[in-house]
Amino acid sequence: MDILMPQLGETVTEGKITRWFKSAGQAVKPGDNLFEIETDKTSMEVPATSAGVLSEIRVPEGETALVGAVVAVVAGDGAAAAPSPAAPVSAKAAPPAPRENGAANGAAPPPSLTYASSSQAPLDPWNAVRTPERNYGPARLPGGTFVTPLARRLAAQSGIDLGGIAPSGPGGRIVAQDVEAAMAKEGKSPGRTLPQTGGATVARGASADAVKAQFEPGSYEEIPLDGMRRTIAARLTESKQTVPHFYLAADVELTRIKAVRTEVNATLGDSGVKLSINDFVIKALATALQRVPAANAVWAEDRILRFRNSDIGVAVSIDGGLVTPVIRGAQAKSVGAISAEMKDIAARARAKKLRPQEMQGGSSAISNLGMYGVREFSAIINPPHATILAVGAARRAPVEAEDGSIRFADQMTVTLSCDHRVVDGALGAELLAAVKLFIEHPVGMMV
Question: What is the pTM of this model?
Answer without folding.
Answer: 0.63
